[in-house]
Design a protein that fits this description.
The protein is mainly beta and about 270 residues long. The chain folds into two domains: about 110 residues, Immunoglobulin-like (Sandwich); about 150 residues. It has three helices and 16 strands. A hairpin with a 4-residue loop joins strand 1 and strand 2.
């Protein structure tokens, strides 16, 4: 069961009767019944540790301003799709490939870390540029380049929003970051080149310029390149279960909350 209550700042308090695990993602969708416009919010335990009250199994998160009127809300568990820029599982949803959702950290991990090990050839697979290879590339770099503070090591050591499985994206993964986030003014990217985990040669590695999406090779020792980590998780293969549905009324009156005797819950906002 989910209970919704809103404050004057449109902060929605969501109370669960069953505690979520860090691997569980919930999507709350509020649909305006007059316009059919929908607002989605994604939450999971790891993303909301600072607002989680274990005694009450409560999460608090904020929606933007909403028009007055009647809304239908629906909560589903482990949704199968997201829009670019949605905050979920520790970062910004970027793209989907081969059943995985790829997530990009919200901010840079460095603005001056080198790729590392200038002049040393790092063993990589046959297609290090490909989507899905950022993880193995990062592992290979960390294993064969002991230099501290390099881009791949920063990503590999990153613990962010409760997740520790970050990696330095491959070239094609980084192109998707540009296409879906940076080019849409999402993700707070600088107009600079960002390291990929693809090695071009013993002396150079590949980057993507977040100003124009152009991929270039640079010396591994350069320190004027940025680092942004990614992670991924498996999307569900079956239709996600609907946890709760109900109605919410947004009014210009004083804030009220009425739990009716039937199965429908109502909430009013003071706008």
């Amino acid at each position: 069961m989910i209970y919704l209550k809103a404050s004057q700042s449109n902060t929605i308090v969501v109370t669960w009767t069953e505690r979520a695990t860090s691997a569980t993602v919930y999507r709350l969708r509020l649909t305006n019944l007059a316009t059919l416009d929908a607002t989605d919010v994604f939450i999971n335990a790891a993303d909301n540790l600072s607002s989680y009250e274990s005694r009450y199994d409560k999460f608090t998160f904020t929606l933007g301003a909403l028009d007055k009127g009647q809304y239908r809300y629906e909560v589903i568990e482990n949704p199968e799709s997201y829009a670019a820029g949605d905050f979920v599982q520790g970062g910004l949803y970027t793209f989907e490939d081969s059943g995985f959702a790829y997530i990009t950290a919200e901010t840079d991990q460095s603005t001056d870390a080198p790729w590392g090990c200038q002049g040393t050839s790092i063993p990589q697979g046959a297609s290090p540029e490909a989507i899905g290879h950022g993880i193995v590339n990062t592992q290979a770099i960390v294993a064969h380049c002991a230099t501290a503070g390099i881009a791949a090591r920063l990503a590999d050591n990153l613990v962010l929003n409760g997740f520790s499985d970050w990696f330095l994206p491959s070239l094609e993964e980084l192109v998707e970051v540009y296409t879906n986030l940076a080019d849409a003014d999402l993700g707070n990217f600088s107009n600079h080149s960002y390291w990929s985990s693809e090695q071009a040669s013993a002396t150079q590695a590949s980057t993507v310029d977040m100003n124009n999406g152009i991929a270039l090779d640079h010396n591994k020792s350069q320190t004027n390149r940025h680092t942004r980590a990614m992670r991924r998780f498996l999307l569900p293969v079956t239709a996600p279960p609907v946890i709760e549905t109900g109605l919410a009324q947004i009014e210009t009156t004083e804030e009220t909350y009425n739990k009716t005797t039937n199965t429908i819950d109502y909430v009013s906002y003071n706008l």
